[in-house]
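Entry 14. Structure prediction run on the chain below.
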Amino acid sequence: MTFASVSLVPCRRRVLSHCSVVFALGALSLASVGVAQPAPGPFTTAGGEWPSHTGDTRGTRYSPLDQISAANFGSLEVAWRFKTDQLGPRPEYKLEGTPLVVGGVLYTTAGTRRAVVALDAATGEMLWMHSENEGARGAASPRPLSGRGLAFWSDGKSARILYVTPGYRLIALDAKTGARIPSFGVNGEVDLKKEVDDPILPDLETGEIGYQGAPTVARDVVIIGAAFREGGAPKSYRNNKGDIRGFDVRTGKRLWTFHTIPRKGEFGYDTWLNGSAESAGNTGVWTQITADEELGLVYLPVESPTGDYYGGHRPGNNLFGESLVCIDLRTGKRKWHYQIVRHPIWDFDLAAAPILADITVNGALIKSVALPTKQGILYMFDRVTGKPVWPMEEREVEKGDVPGEWYAPTQPIPVKPLAYARNGVTLDDLIDFTPALKEVGIAAASKFKLGPIYTPPVLSQAEGPLATFTNGPTNGGSNWPGGSYDPETHIIYLSATNASPSALGLVTPAKGASDMDYVRGFAPGAGRAGFTVQGLPLLKPPYGTISAINLDNGEIVWQTPHGETPDAVRNHEALKGLTIPRTGQAGSVGTLVTKTLVIAGDPEVTTVAPRPRGAVLRAYDKMSGKEVGGVPLPAPQSGSPMTYAVNGRQYLVVAVSGGPYSGEYIAFRLPAPSTR
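Output returned:
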């Protein structure tokens, strides 16, 4: 491919430690494709576009398009493919983006440098590419690679693309050309490590803070979250704080900061005993943030404080850790909050985007917010007042015996809806294909402490228990892909992992590895502790599901296993001669809901005749849950699917990657109508 122009923006050594490059494709006129300039106001999918990461700022992942239906889904063909290997110094095997489409142009992130690309939405041809080389700062990022997306903004006269780099810089680009907007911040960027209330530790280059989510733009305000390294063994309980900030979309000026760990004198400070709020860190929002532009409210799903599994350095309930927080869009002031988990020690980060839903409960209209969780529990609140839609039950939970730990005596659990995924692990959850396998499974589980949700972590002992064995914290229930919501039927669709076992064991860290009293691990001499029985999952199926829940009454409408039975189960010697119902697959995938369908791709690769080894993009009737069609994918779905219409034809786009398959966006459409 030859480019008509290549502009290299030189490094400004006294201001920036990186370079940016913009490629503009001259062979295809941008004017011929066009970049729409929507009128100011909430962006929606009503016109066949996809202008926000979740379709709209409400988190719905809904489109009213209906050209692709149950009758023709299996006839979909590949419209175009966009391989991302060349958008960084090495291929990426974790492509998690969801593109945007506005005015016939598709915008997305891709590649190990998190490049931004603009493609012709009908052909996949590149229009421009913007990339930042952040050097050592980018290499030190706690959230590297391509990230999950970007944001679009327009005032009807001009249009901008906004995204956060791996090195934690907010960049504003011209939507037509990909060039930086000089009037935004300093030459098109805001350094998010500098626009903070506390200095970044230990320094700006290596300090642990970043963001892989898409910015949220609402009413000319850009809202940015914060994320940290994954893992159960932090180097220190003293870490950077995950404050949430709002910036002016035109100028880049910081408008407000919400302290997710309250400062002295602020509401919630007293929930951190012994002054622990001063040293505590994390407690950011690493997933998507949603907003009600009409009400001027923003909804923050907040993660755990440092560390995920031991909270002895931070006694107390620890607001706003693992809380849903509603703040004012203009000021950043708290309107209400609800702490989902008090004194978090299970890594139940609020991982999914809150979904705004206008529902009718017992004849009363409620502007609600629905929160899917790793626990496989859907929490529902009035999004204006914060009052739970259905009563919360204060459930007593076990008090652990880890030295120095502080334990909350109860945790809140809603009476409705019922849990849509496994949480906790008891003997009844173990493998039971045959009595012999169940016996072996019970023996394997005997090394662990079992129990219901909120069974606390334990000190790992070689003689047992090695750890608390549970489902959910790592990747269970609903994780970052979240759910989708149909505003016509008031039904929410949630994929969930039922077989994502986690071992919550604590050990004293190796000398010099961490200043925490305890970190996650197995006791020395414990040997290998696996979660399989003769190569089969220790937990029984279904391994993964899609659930439909009616938000008007809190009832599960249908639930179905999602994905084929894995090869390792279908072909296992011990199961020969048995009829194994479809198990579904473990793994996080996002759903898309349209006029008639729920669409989601497989999280695993399988081999099923007559199709080639690979995965499938599946469609379900949204009212019954019956699978109505599928098209092959070369690799598992790794980013949430989206849909749009260009020139009278509907397209589906999904990111695939994983294992030996590097990242690729694939667009599907129906065959062109016959001209005969």
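Residues 435-445 form the longest helix (11 residues).
Filed with the rest of this week's runs.
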